[in-house]
Amino acid sequence: xxxxxxxxxxxxxxxxxxxxxxxxxxxxxxxxxxxxxxxxxxxxxxxxxxxxxxxxxxxxxxxxxxxxxxxxxxxxxxxxxxxxxxxxxxxxxxxxxxxxxxxxxxxxxxxxxxxxxxxxxxxxxxxxxxxxxxxxxxxxxxxxxxxxxxxxxxxxxx
Length: 158
Hints:
Number of domains: 1
Helix content: 10-25%
CATH class: Alpha Beta
CATH topology: Thiol Ester Dehydrase, Chain A
CATH superfamily: Hotdog Thioesterase
Largest sheet: 6 strands, antiparallel
Radius of gyration: 17 Å
Distance between the termini: 41 Å
Strand order of the largest sheet: 1-2-4-5-6-3
C-alpha cells in the first residue's frame, strides 16, 4: 500500500494512527477522494496546551505538515519527487478553542507545477493555509514551501 494506491478514507484512518499525531489531538476530518482538499482539526485539551493555556504552536504547525506533500504527490504521480523545503508560521492570535485548517490544491496549482518542472527543473511552490478557531478568526497562517521535480522530464536535445 502506498500514497498512489491508497483510498482517501483509508489514508484518513491511517493518519489517526500515525505516531507523530497520537497525543496532539489532531484529527483528519476529511480527505477528498481526489486528494485536493484535506480538513484537519485540533481540539484544545490539557495535553496540547502550552504554559499559557492556549494551543501549542508546534501542534498548530503539525496540523498542516504532511498535507501538501501528500496532495501534490498523489495528484502528480510517481514520476515526481515531492519533498519539504521549508515552512514558516505566523501566530495571529491565541488559540483558545478547537482550531481547523483546510489544505487545498487547485487545478491551477497543478498546471503551474507541471509547467515549471517540464524540463526537469526543480521548483519551489508555496502553499498558504490559515488555521482558524471556532469563531472563524485566523489563529495562525502557515506557509509551506514544497520542493518539486519531475524525475522523468528530458532536457531538450541540441
